[in-house]
Each structure stands twice: as C-alpha cells, then as structure tokens.
Here is the input.
Amino acid sequence: MTSDTEKRIMAMLHSQTNGLNKGDPISPPIVTTAKYLLPGEPDTPYVYGRDINPTVVATENALNAIEDAKTIAFPTGMAAITAGIMATCKPGDRIVVPSDGYFVTRALLDEALTGLGLTVDLLKTTDFETADLSAYNVVWLETPSNPGLDLCDIAAVAAKLKGTETKLVVDNTTLTPLLQRPLDLGADMVVASDTKAMAGHSDVLFGHIATRDDALFAKAVRWRKLCGSVAGPWEAFLVHRGLMTLELRLERMCSNARTLYHRLAAQIGASKLQLIKYPNIGFVMGLTFENSQIADHFIEDCPAIFASTSFGGIHTSAERRARWGDDVPGGYVRLSVGCEPQDALVEAIEATLKSL
Ligand SMILES: *Cc1c(COP(=O)(O)O)cnc(C)c1O
Here is the structure.
C-alpha cells in the first residue's frame, strides 16, 4: 500500500501540473510584477506584489503538499523564524529556546526581542523532555540540534503541553518534512530554512512556516504583509525546481551518510578521528578530531569535501563550528553529506582521514 510519505511526495510533484489546460507550461512561470490589473473593488487575492505572487504561490502549493499543512513562504529561514516568533509571542510572554540550537535564532531574540518585552530562557535540547515547561507561552525546539546533533522527543514534549495554551514550534530545517513530521507529532508550527536541503543546490535563500492552526497561519500571513518580508519569484522558482528532486537527493544523501558513518566509525582509534555523532537519520554528522588544526586539514585536504558553512547541498561540505563561537570542541567538524557517487565519496574521505 502507498505510504503517507509517498502520497505527499506525489501530491508535491503534481501540485503544479494538476489542473493545467492544453498548452499551459509544465513549470511555474516566473512572474515579475509589483502590480496587478485591479479596477473597482479589490475582490481578488492578487492586489499587490507584497501580498501575493503567482510563482511564490506555486512554490507554496508544493510546500503545502509535502507538509500536509498550510504554508507561507519567506525570503530566508530567518525571515520565517522571525514570523514564527511574531505569530506566537506578544510582549510579556516567556519563550524557551534551545541553548545549543541555531545561534542566529538566539541572537535575534537576545538582541532584538528581549528589549521589546519578551522573556527568553535557554534549555539544552536534551533537557526539554524532563524540564518543567509550564511557565512558557512558547516552547521552541530544534531536533537534531544544529550543530551538536542532540535529539529531543517532539511527541513527548507535545504530550506535556497538551491541553495548555503553550504553543510548540519546531525548527525542522535539518531533517525536512520527508524525514521528520513535527506537526503529526503534536507541534503547532514548523519553521524551516529551505536554503538547505529543501532547495538543495546552494544557489538560493528561502524559508517557510507550516501550520494547521488557522489563527497562527493568519497571524504569520499578516506579519509578512506588514513587515514586507516577501520571497521573490526567481527564488521561488529555484526552490520549486529543487523540491521536485527532494526525495531523490535525500535518498542518495542519507544512503551516503549511513555508509560513511559505518566506514568512519571503524577508523576511530586507528586514526585522528576521536568521535562521530550521527543521529541514525539524515545526512549531517559531527566528526570530532584531536584539535582544530587536524580538523582544518581534514576539511581542506579532502578533494571530495567543499569547505563552507551551511548544509544540505548537492556537494559534501564541512566546517569547524567553533570558528563561529558555537559551544563545541575546537576539533568538531559538521559534515553535510552530499549526492556524490558513494564509493568515490567514501574512499576519498577515508583516504584523507588516513593521511592526517
Ligand atoms: C540555516 C538555518 C536557519 C536560517 O536559515 P537562513 O535561510 O540562512 O536564513 C535556521 N535554522 C536552522 C536550523 C538552520 O540550519
């Protein structure tokens, strides 16, 4: 029987082509317009470019299908995160966010929003399950955490919050809606950076919110209109194009990551690699080397690894996260496994590890 995941993928792949008329283009037209013909009463959604754009709508339709929820597109993941905070929080509220999650989310709260009356607390990703969360209006999770790859049981946290007014928001960037389903596990809202695996080609910034809560959806849509944080049609087109191969890319990336994990795990002790962290799902892993110099050598010497920040692209890439001040060891490397042919990739990385 067709799985729920396959049904969502099919719906995403056909979201643009369903309902086409003879002669219509199969890919979403890139519509660049600020204005729409609008005589008389504004009784159409197409009133102005800050409200709506047909190419962005095509991408949102694909996102709706893969999330199985209403989605709202944003120009970056951080724009989606800001909208998620604005839709769920008001002055006087308390929010708890992971101390080991994406650092820009913490910086945004700390530098811009605590001064506007929000109280922000930090909690380690692994502590959310046991902590008393009853004081919070919003609980914000990121699992696996970025960059440390610690895990938190979303369903267990959702169960604790059931029956309360507290909103549970999950940053699902690292695993995407194909590998983790926060809304099905009880979250009220998903925020995501589609700059990573969703678009997948490292050539565009994008983000989205997904929710089944109509009031939260309406607030986030309103926020986007008021602050003008709108995605452009060119970017939306690239994300749409990337989404069409999301499943294929993830299949290769995850298979490469699993194989690489087992092969590298066998080298611990026999090489300069001290530790590997791989949450048994996804394509991101953490490698800990003895020190930062060896870690830099690993990244720069390996012809199969592209040295860069970010993750989720076609190319295997890596960086030392301590260079950004993240609370990880100096020799900790976040490796994002790409779509390269498996034997060539694994052999190149193994050879570099042995040469260190
Ligand atoms: C990259 C990232 C973001 C921010 O996304 P941008 O598209 O760069 O704005 C947010 N959360 C996580 C977990 C990320 O990895």
